[in-house]
Structures are given as structure tokens and as C-alpha cells.
């Protein structure tokens, strides 16, 4: 196995030359996805004038350098685009909408919709079963 199972971070292998390259690659991936915040999620192609580290959720029907990347996270690094495939359960802050989204099996969905199901609960068990004496 040459990379981790979830984020596909490269392992430093025995007898590997230039170990710093592999280590830096892993750090770059972590930097891109930990505390994920994307600039936009409606674009099907790059807007232009990107800055190092800019990230976008690629909209359906992508063209140009993002063609075939629908739903992926596009990262601008070292003067080019890098595709990062999100896993179910990932969360991302969408800056231009000021909203939090979550990755379902194959799509991004507003996290607010998931919280809406909690509205109007009369009981909620936290670390225990909820009952009339312990409603929260």
C-alpha cells in the first residue's frame, strides 16, 4: 500500500529517494481538505484569476479544465488545477453563499436541510434516553 485509504495521502516508502517530495504532497492534500472552504459551487468552468489554494466544488456539466469533474473539489495549486474526489460525509463551507454543505453518496446537499428535520422535537436524548424527566 502506497497511500492512505481515505485521503490517498502518499506514504514515505523504505529506500525512497526525495522523501520530502512525498511528505510535501501529503501536506498539500491535508491543507486542501482539512477545514474545507470553497469559493463557489455553481461554476462549470474556472472563473479566471485564481489565487494559490482557491477551491471550488465543480457544478454538473463541467467543461474546459474541469470537464468530467462534476461534484469534485477543484484546487488551484502551482499554476494548475488538481481534482480531489470528496468522500460521503465531507463538510464544506461555501463562501459566496455563506452556507455549509455535506457530501452525500454522490452529491452535495445543504446541511441546513438536514437540521430542519430536527425542528419541533419535544425530546432529545444526549448520552441517554430522552424521557419526560430528562427532555434534553
Structural overview:
- With 136 residues, the protein is of the alpha+beta class.
- It has 2 helices and 7 strands, in the order αβββββββα.
- The protein has a 4-stranded mixed sheet with strand order 1-5-6-7.
- A hairpin with a 2-residue loop joins strand 3 and strand 4 (80-84).
- The longest helix has 15 residues, at 19-33.
Unreliable spans are none
Beta fraction of the residues? 15-25%
Q: Helical percent range?
A: 10-25%
Order of helices and strands: HEEEEEEEH
Our Rg estimate from Cα atoms comes to 19 Å
| Extended strand count | 7
What is the straight-line distance between the termini?
Answer: 46 Å
Shape: flat
Largest sheet data:
4 strands, mixed
Put simply, the count of helices is 2
